[in-house]
Amino acid sequence: MSARVIAVSNRKGGTAKTTTAVNLSAALGARGRRVLLVDLDTQGHAGLGFGVRAAPGAVTVHDLFRGGGQDLAEGIRTSAYAQVDVLPADRTFAGVAERVEPLDLARALDPLQAAYDAVVIDTAPTADALLVSALAAAHHVIVPTLLHHLALDGVGQFARSFFRVAADLNPHLAGMSLLPVQVDLRMTMQREALEQLAARFGRQRLLPGIRPDIALAEAFGCGRPVRYFKSRSRSVEDFEFLCDRMLEVVLN
Ligand SMILES: Nc1ncnc2c1ncn2[C@@H]1O[C@H](COP(=O)(O)OP(=O)(O)OP(=O)(O)O)[C@@H](O)[C@H]1O
Ligand SMILES: [Mg+2]
């Protein structure tokens, strides 16, 4: 069995991509799945969410794009939490996009996949060559989005990149799911945005959402997934539902 690769992406900033990548990885790990979290965003936040950063001089995922045929296995760090390993980012990387070959990441992850059930890739809030390489390596993409008037626009723009990569580069990129975050359906604007997303992309693409929960930010500040910080938080419950859905749809 080879790992299923899930990218967490949206070209918009601050939509809980990293929060989702970290807490979904932790939930999958707690269910006994072996997880590799790949931190493709040079902000390095996904690694920090597990209390992991690259040691000076160590291999990072970004070394791939410096033109060496890097063995990424050397850069993998075990986290302190069940079943989750992390491939950290190089926070100093400011690579020139042209040097990123779209299939480099997919090829480099290939030999690692036998050791894991899931590879989760956190991506930066951009529509650049690194995003294309994440989509080119993925089987499924989760698009976390806030429910406001521009949600439809942002997800629509992202969807164009998704369909282009699925058509041109990666026949295995089978699914795109939308994850509503900071959900409070007492707000008319949020209910409207949800309906617009369902109408445009199909209700079956909508994942169970994540409610607002300050524990997520506090846990991140302590370098831990929320389930290992405040296990009775409502966000822990919400990420369990997301994990269930991913086990059903992608990791079955
Ligand atoms: N459900 C939530 N409730 C409350 N705060 C949240 C929730 N989800 C995320 N946050 C907070 O929102 C902020 C942005 O989240 P996060 O860093 O995950 O977004 P991002 O999409 O990865 O951002 P970037 O585009 O910069 O990579 C963080 O401070 C995070 O703790
Ligand atoms: Mg992020």
Describe the structure.
- The chain has helices at 17-30, 45-49, 104-109, 129-137, 151-168, 188-201, 214-221, 234-249; strands at 4-8, 35-39, 77-78, 84-87, 118-122, 140-146, 175-181.
- With 252 residues, the chain is α/β, with parallel strands linked by helices.
- It has one domain: 3-Layer(aba) Sandwich (Rossmann fold), CATH 3.40.50.300.
- A seven-stranded mixed sheet has the order 3-4-2-5-1-6-7, with helices on both faces.
- The chain is globular, with a radius of gyration of 17 Å.
- The model has no long low-confidence stretch (mean pLDDT 94).
- It binds adenosine-5'-triphosphate (ATP) and magnesium ion.
- Adenosine-5'-triphosphate is lined by residues 13-19, 41, 43, 45, 125, 181-182, 210, 212-214, 216-217, 220, 235.
- Adenosine-5'-triphosphate (ATP) is lined by residues 13-19, 41, 43, 45, 125, 181-182, 210, 212-214, 216-217, 220, 235.
Quick rundown:
The chain has helices at residues 17-30, 45-49, 104-109, 129-137, 151-168, 188-201, 214-221, 234-249; strands at 4-8, 35-39, 77-78, 84-87, 118-122, 140-146, 175-181. The protein has 252 residues and is α/β, with parallel strands linked by helices. The model has no long low-confidence stretch (mean pLDDT 94).
